[in-house]
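Chapter summary example.
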Amino acid sequence: MRLFFILPFLFFYMAVSAQDQVSNDVKTASNEDLTHGLPWLTSLDDAKKEAEKTKKPILVYFTGSDWCAPCVKLEKYFFHTDKFVEESAKYHIVYLDNPFRDDIISEQEKKINKKLSNKYKVKYPTIIALDYRGSERNRVERFSGEDPRYHWRFMDENRSIFRL
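The structure predicted for these 164 residues follows.
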């Protein structure tokens, strides 16, 4: 009989502990951390207008800044590298956040970003490469561990696709 009382308590404790760990990981990232001195845009429409003028491709990063632990790790091991800073100059880079909290981005921006994530069938985190006309040409989804090799392969493929 005691087992019926102990098991639910243990399950609840494990669930709360796991959530705390994800929250602690996610707290380490912020929009300020992500910029790393880069000109991130937060509007895909604005990026498309700029790309039409410059004929440069667009990299769109879909993230959940306050809940997605893999997004935080991707930012640390991929976006915060000197190599990415150098590569990003060849693109218009777009940061589309889909946070749970309401104080990170405006409600309007949240609606637009949610609509775009549904349109592109995003699994977090996702980076999509668009040509200057806005057509999807390549993508890389998810992130695990601390190894961004698939993301660097994605960037190598983009060099070939866009002749960069």
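To summarize the output: Helices lie at 2-27, 31-35, 44-54, 69-79, 82-88, 107-119, 149-161.
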